[in-house]
Design brief:
The complex is a heterodimer of chains A (454) and B (486). Chain A is of the alpha/beta class and 454 residues long. Chain A is built from 15 helices and 22 strands. A six-stranded parallel beta sheet of chain A has the order 3-2-1-4-5-6, with helices on both faces. In chain A, strands 14-13-12-15-16-17 form a six-stranded parallel beta sheet, sandwiched between helices. In chain A, a hairpin with a 4-residue loop joins strand 18 and strand 19. With 486 residues, chain B is mostly helical. In chain B, a hairpin with a 2-residue loop joins strand 2 and strand 3. The chains are: A alpha/beta (454), B mainly alpha (486).
Amino acid sequence: MKVLILGAGQVGRTAAYHLSREPANEVTIVDTNEDVLRELQDRLDVRTVAGSASYPSVLEAAGIVDTDILVALTSSDEVNMIACEIAHTLYRTPTRIARIRASEYTSREKLFSDGAIAVDVWINPEQLVTEYIERLIHNPGALQVVDFADGKVRLVGLRALRGGLLVGQQVRTLKDHMPHADARIVAIYRDDRAIAPTGETVVQEGDEIFFIAARDHIQRMMAEIRRAEEPVRRIVIAGGGHIGFRLALQLESKYQVKLIERDPKRARACSERLENTIVLQGDAQDEELLIEENIDSTDVFAALTNSEEANVLSAMLAGRLGARKVMALVNKPSYGDLMEHRSIDIVISPQTVTIGSLLAHVRRGDVVRVHSLRRGSAEALETVVHGPADRSRVVGRKIQDIPLPDGSSISAVVRGERVIIAHHDTVIEEDDHVIMFLVDPRQVDAVERIFQVE
Amino acid sequence: MRSLLAVFNVLGSLLLFCGVLYALPAITALLYGETGTAVTFIAGGLLAALIGLALRFATRPFREQLKARDGYLLVTAGWLLVTAVAALPLMREIPGISFTDAYFEAMSGLTTTGVTTLSHVDLLPHAVNLWRHALQWFGGMAMIVLAVAILPLLGVGGMQVHRADAPGSVKDARLTPRITQTARALWLVYLGLTVLCVLGLLMAGMPFFDAICHAFTVMSLGGYSTHDASIAWFHSGRIEFVSGLFLLVAAINFSTHFAAVRKGEPSLYLRDPEARWMLIWIGLSIAALSVYVWQSGVYPSLGSALRYVSFSVISLATTSGLISVDYSVWPLFVPMWMLLLGCVTSSTGSPGGGIKMFRALVLLKQSLREMFVLVHPQAVAPLKIAGSVIPNRAVYSVLAFIFVYFMTLVVLTLALLASGLDFISAFTAVLGSLNNAGPGLGLVGPGHSWWALSDYQAWICIAAMFLGRIELFTALVLFTPAFWRK
């Protein structure tokens, strides 16, 4: 598939990385900054074009004419919209995706309807990251929480701790603990290596476990793996940028939220729009400020500034001063691996959160949702099964008979409103939404081929 | 000097307009066959119109040269002049009345204070009674337009936040693009509500003439009645209910009324923080005071305590001053509470007086903010009302306004004490006048005429009514040298 990415910022570069590592894709990336492009070309197998992303001549040079998917990810909403509009009007590009931040635009659905602005799908990375952090806070103890089938099913990643009922037990005993709540452990990582869970696998303390369950059973299931945590009440957010501000706005009605922002003007702007949040003007790495604001009785400290080094430092400091759980927004995957589980409880990688929503549109077959897990080393996806049975390798078969590659498994099936947690003898039907877990994302090609209608 | 002449030009127009208003009592007099009274009003109207025309003609070259700053002089001079003109027919028609008392009566009407130095108002000619009540109604209207259209431009006492073009304005949007249209729209709402009030009072069993007069009183939050005994004369729970209801309506910002009517969204009332807090405070006061009055044994049943207390609380809190019962026989705590409630409950953009709910909320939130910052020294905490930020400049104006308000209260109370009046009478007379509410306690208590006041004391009260009505600063600024310096 020919993909044209506009803008080589954080999100653009990550998208290029993820898309170009799937052999079926040809990726071109456009940006005004030639240095960034040169550096990108050294690392990735992509074509780069320097120039203004919305100019037809630049788009033509980047091969817009036979592009299948245009992904406009520049920092300007307006440039992204215009680029999509131009691609549609002049070149009839089939699929156009744009990053649009301002809710002024996205809240007016009619703007992106047929015949209006030619954007098929808009994504808002900051909003996605905010929702992601929100889910983590609502489910204390989880490392990752992602939604499938409009939130009917959730995949949760968490670390096993002493006190969980299942710790030290075989996976099969889950049925005895929770006879009614249907849930399934889909992956276990021990010392950063995936082990395929079977009924006999014994859960050990320190394992990173992914399970899938209907939304209502999540809390019960988490208690199986680690002792239930106190619910979160007090939250301190460092950084009043797009993400920090949005998060405070979302959380302030349910939790006690404090927001620390260094820039006086930005702090003022945040305080004017937030109702119950206490906005503090100061540095989140300032020990005295943190102590003065009772960091030791804080349940969650989330460092969400634009500087990842500052995030790491302030989160570590907050953790040492007694915050119960610290999170940091970190872009570089290597930093994340370095920090997580040591001095920082949860490392949030904005790219992994965002990239899934892009990948879903690039995939073959009817892929509804893709979530990148463990900072890109695993993937979960939701796909729609199409029939009829005589032309599909999936419809009408039991799960155990579907020839999936090793390391890939079907975790759950959503049939209409019903959530079915997968068993080896579950029979797939036409129009089911199948949720799969891939230990190795490079297998996605093989998996997709199985689901394609012949 | 040129701007002074320009002010005179506008004053001429104002007088001309007043002359036209005389038609109302004149026609009433003719209808009731009070020929002599009719002649007075027609002559008065012609006189006012002629002086107005002459002023306008003489200063014609200077029209349209007003600056925003001239607004202070215009409002002050206009109010005093119109009061004098309105007092003239009273001097002729009420036997034995002094100029002081006539001016007091006209000022009390125009400022919607509604206390009188007259006794036996039941015996006055219909036209004179209508004139007294109509003065309140016109005064109330003038206040609404002043508060919505003019004071925000001048920025008196934090009112700049109500400027339609101010960033983060408290009000949804400006009513209409032009001041004249805004004024006309408010007139219509005011008139419409008054008509509804007349109908309501008629249905509650009030005679026609009384209903007109009391509707004028109620909608302007004045206090005049066609009877010495005020509302109590009717002995009717239904009349008290209807007037109480419309008092509450009149104490809400008229631009909220306008917006709610035009958009057809009653929820706008709940989003108006002033209306919301007014209802909460009045509701809580009624509940607490009813129980208190009942427990202290004034009334045998909670029901009758509730009836009298609720009307009195509404009447005094909205700064009307209509009286359904002699509350001075209740324990002092209760009338004091009600009088002080009048300082803060009515909304900006209503004919009510006092500090106003908006400023009270700013003061309250500023005090809370001070304490909040003590706990969180690095907090950024802008003062917000209903989600809009009040700029610090406006907060300071409000604080200054409240300081000057209380200083005025203290100074004028001392001025009355100096004349030998007892403390309760002096304090409540100034409080009632400054809030444009009316009755107080003691010599100026409910159901009393204020005839006992000496001329000196009456002028102190006139000053209090006037200052309270035009929001203190509008008049006080004229006494600063900076205003007159070129």
